[in-house]
User: Fold this.
Amino acid sequence: MKFSCLRTDLANAVSNVSRAVSAKSSIPALEGILIKGYGEKINISGYDLEIGITTDIEATIQEQGEIVVGARLFSEIVRKLPEEVVCIETDERMVTYITSGQSHFQIIGMSSVEYPDLPVFETTDEIKISSKLLKDMIRQTVYAVSDNKAKPIYTGSLFELEKNSLRIVAVDGYRMAVRYEEIQCSSESKFVVPGKTQQEVLKLISDDEQEVEVLVGQRHIMFKVNSYCVISRLIEGTFLDYKTTIPTETKTEIVINSRVLINSVERVSILNSEKIQSPVRCTMANDEIKLLCSTAVGRASDSFSVPVIGEDVEIGFNNKYLLDALKNCETDEVKLLLNGSLSPMVIKPVKGESFIYLVVPMRLSNEV
Assistant:
């Protein structure tokens, strides 16, 4: 194989594709990236048997062929080459020659025969969605995906397609995030997409109004983002019936400025750390919210006025879980719905149903 291309294009492609490369694998080829040179483009792929990322870049190809090169080493070399034009050539011994300006490298590659094929699947559902909308929906829910591999189904998000709508649901046992948007879609289906896959898609999506094409199969999913394809296994299993976990009764209702509450929680959380975790005690009564956090290193309190409708309530939260939910609302005002001190707090927009966030409370000690 022999080709030349722009260093910037190659460096960007290798950097993005390398995120799907195994850091350490019993199959040596999976620690590399697969480069194929055919026609007027080269195809670059990374794959760890769970998720694959592949893309094409324009190149001038003198000899067609395929090679697998170590991802970390190749990426480092390409990133530091001095000139914009890169020439790459391989010989029958799998030696790869990289030339740019006065810089020359030789590295040992591997045969593409040793590289596992990326999954090919039959599409059962297909949707097209604005890249900005998909980016927002994933970003505002993926924070609630579980990292506990003992229950694999919750290490992903439920994608629920109904006629002309998409709902994404993530839950980890301490909080739940639900995002809903109307989209053009004629089919109805449910599938669970790994959190890692969603994070990779997020990194590739731009903020423009281009469309992302999503192809769904029985066991796999593919996101076509700009010039990239992200292909992943779906997580098999039964996802939580999330609708039954949303409290139907409300005893206390508060409409509040999001930033005011975030700032207040952040202030009293200063005393918390990774080693020291105490709940943020929230007392909502007499048209006022009082926040208190007491740890071994000290005590912090804050308060502000806000109309409180219904019963008074005192409730405690993990500060991180509460802040994650509030910061992902991205609306000026939110509605807080509570049903006593032991039931999850519901956070919703003042108007509409575009998101529902649940935060499970922590039990409070009697000490104040």
Notes: The helical segments are 7-17, 71-79, 131-139, 195-204, 258-268, 319-327.
